[in-house]
């Protein structure tokens, strides 16, 4: 009787005799910085949406997904560390 499964040339069997491979090294995800956002509750239409940082990195800008009311949150020193807000 065979003790371990081996991968055949067609790849449809599992090799359970090999130890698990180590997890991949942690790599900093550059997308995380590119997709920074604020969570906004738009009281005007009772909906939640995200607004994202503009390309120049000076503000978070967006709009209500229902009525298109625009919002802008300037980025600067002396600001807040909050990530969720209510608008309109």
Write the SSE topology:
Elements: H1 30-34, E1 37-42, E2 47-53, E3 59-63, E4 70-74, E5 84-87
Parallel strand pairs: 1-5
Antiparallel strand pairs: 1-2, 2-3, 3-4
Region (Disordered): 1-30
Main beta sheet: strand number and arrangement? Answer: 5 strands, mixed
What radius of gyration results from the CA coordinates? Answer: 24 Å
Q: Based on Cα principal axes, name the global outline.
A: elongated
Mean pLDDT, rounded to whole units?
80
SSE run: HEEEEE
Task: Give the termini distance in whole angstroms.
Answer: 71 Å
User: What is the number of beta strands?
Assistant: 5
Beta-strand content estimate? 25-35%
- Give helix % range: under 10%
Features of the shown structure:
88 residues, mainly beta, five-stranded mixed beta sheet, 5 strands
Structure summary:
This protein has about 90 residues and is mainly beta. Helices cover about 5% and strands about 30% of the residues.
Characterise the protein shown here:
This protein has one helix and five strands. The radius of gyration is 24 Å and the shape is elongated. It has a domain at about 35-85. It is mainly beta. The protein has one helix at about 30-35; strands spanning about 35-40, 45-55, 60-65, 70-75, 85. The longest helix is centred in the middle third of the chain and has 5 residues, at about 30-35. Strands 4-3-2-1-5 form a five-stranded mixed beta sheet, with no helix packed on it. Strand 2 and strand 3 (about 60-65) form a beta hairpin.
